[in-house]
Amino acid sequence: MQQLGALMNYWKKYVEATECLTRALDAARQCNDFRLELETLVELAEAKRHAAPGEAIDTLLQCAGLAKNVGDLATEQRSWQRLGLIHESMNSIPKARESYETSLLLAQQLSLDAAVATLQNTLEQIRQ
């Protein structure tokens, strides 16, 4: 179901992707498969980003929390960066700044030089 949802995302059928991925998320949680749950949350957030940006925020917060709990700093970092993008697109600049700053700290810990540079530029731009 998760792969079908990812395919629907690829085809830009975001409502269908959200339905498939919500079912896949339930299944991953029933099996206590944290890796699959995390992968599904990432895909679900992407679908919701297009279909219902407000709902994507909740999904990305879940994703960041689970990634932190399982020690996946890279996914946690990307989740915070995507949260920043969504908040910025919704003109919620203080929340965007907070999300980008959290992502920046994680990117620095991971030595992701390109992400650090991108996030620093983004933060500089939204401060103006």
Architecture blueprint of SSEs:
Layout: H1 2-10, H2 14-30, H3 34-51, H4 53-70, H5 73-89, H6 93-109, H7 113-127
Structural features, described:
By secondary structure, this protein is mainly α. The chain folds into 2 domains: 1-51, no CATH class; 53-128, Serine Threonine Protein Phosphatase 5, Tetratricopeptide repeat (Alpha Horseshoe), CATH 1.25.40.10. Helices cover 87% and strands 0% of the residues. It has 7 helices and no strands. The chain has helices at residues 2-10, 14-30, 34-51, 53-70, 73-89, 93-109, 113-127. Helix 4 packs antiparallel against helix 5 (73-89). The protein is globular, with a radius of gyration of 15 Å. The N and C termini lie far apart (44 Å).
- Whole-number mean pLDDT: 95
Approximate shape:
globular
Number of helical stretches of at least 4 residues: 7
Helix percent reads over 70%
Structural class: mainly alpha
* Major sheet details: none
Based on the model shown, name its key terms.
128 residues; 2 domains; Serine Threonine Protein Phosphatase 5, Tetratricopeptide repeat
Structure at a glance:
By secondary structure, this protein is mostly helical.
